């Protein structure tokens, strides 16, 4: 066949060319297939070029296309394929943030590692983080493979338990790797935290991608063998990991059953346990002095004033009236707790024993007794009435109102209060020696003896009135606790 330019074209070649074009492209009605062939031959200058152009339009089954170098195959035995690795071959890397941070890797694939802090130059991109020893290392060593963290499906959170350092946050990947990052500069670490969190939030939550998309991306890079190897590895776990995987699956499956079984046993135990009253009747549990209601202690001892209160008052009046800061200075807490244990476990108490030689231990235990009363010495039901009484401007009316409220107290409360305030009046009488005035004693015992059932926002105001009530009752002791004739 001869063209308009006088060149000879093999009809068979032309026919095969047209067939190939029709198979790969949709036919265009405005151009004939022979026109396309003429255009290609027109640009050729020699017989060799003409043959080359013809072959470029024909893909013979016997001709092997040169495949690009498979860079994935070499890395398969050393690294796991991640989404970041696949997409990094298709998309350019854009650095979102970079800078120095303290880094510590504490887990690798779920296996705990020893924490070792080191300074790293961190490069954050849209999908991963890379760690370098110094900022110029990527430019100095182009072939250097940095340590990477795939952020797809990762979790970021602040932590104060993994390190004693401040400003520490943790990143946990889906593969079980855990990293700690820290900086002493508050705004710097906060900026890094939000930058990484935003990058994680933009990524899909699932680490794995569908097999169809994976096959498409791998075929584009001519890595068919890699696809087959990846499928094999995903279906057949390595022998050394198979045993641990089975253990984890069995454990997670039986964990819920174990918890339910434990809960059931605890419920049965609690429902069958004997009551406190039964244990006390059998003598297995002795009545406690500290932490019990005042009327319960008095009822048990068949008195209106607890024996422990009487013993403490006698000991202080015997060897503590002249002590500087009595009731204000704190005793050794460990010794006070020891005295508390002895009082709760033994019936007889000798405060003259050498181990209770420090009088501040005795006063501390007495204050602890009143603090631990479930209901204070001034009952909750009369708290507001005492508050209103102390606000009365006329002093005589105020004293009369306080006196009438004190008379309303239950017998154990009244008798204990009368003995205690009589004792504190003796302390105030020695103010020149022990430096404890009625005002000082009001500050010490006000919140201890008088408190509301439910704390409100008026704590400071209440504390002021509590102190004033105790101070008034000490100053006017004879009028408040005296007989009616007085």
If you had to describe this structure to a student in words, what would you say it looks like?
Helices cover 52% and strands 10% of the residues. By secondary structure, it is α+β, with helices and mostly antiparallel strands. Strands 1, 2, 3, 4, 5, 6, 7 and 8 form an 8-stranded antiparallel beta sheet that branches. Helix 1 crosses helix 2, helix 13 runs antiparallel to helix 15 (359-371) and helix 20 crosses helix 21. Residues 292-481 form the Rho-GAP domain. Residues 94-201 form the PH domain. Pfam families: PH, RhoGAP.
Which secondary structure elements does this structure contain, and how are they paired or packed?
Blueprint: H1 11-24, H2 33-42, H3 47-56, H4 71-76, H5 83-88, E1 95-108, E2 111-112, E3 118-125, E4 128-132, H6 137-140, E5 147-150, E6 155-158, E7 168-172, E8 178-182, H7 186-202, H8 211-220, H9 224-235, H10 239-272, H11 276-282, H12 294-301, H13 307-319, H14 333-345, H15 359-371, H16 383-390, H17 395-407, H18 411-429, H19 431-434, H20 438-449, H21 459-475, H22 477-481
Antiparallel strand pairs: 1-2, 1-3, 1-8, 3-4, 4-5, 6-7, 7-8
Helix pairs in contact: 1-2, 13-15, 13-18, 14-15, 16-17, 20-21
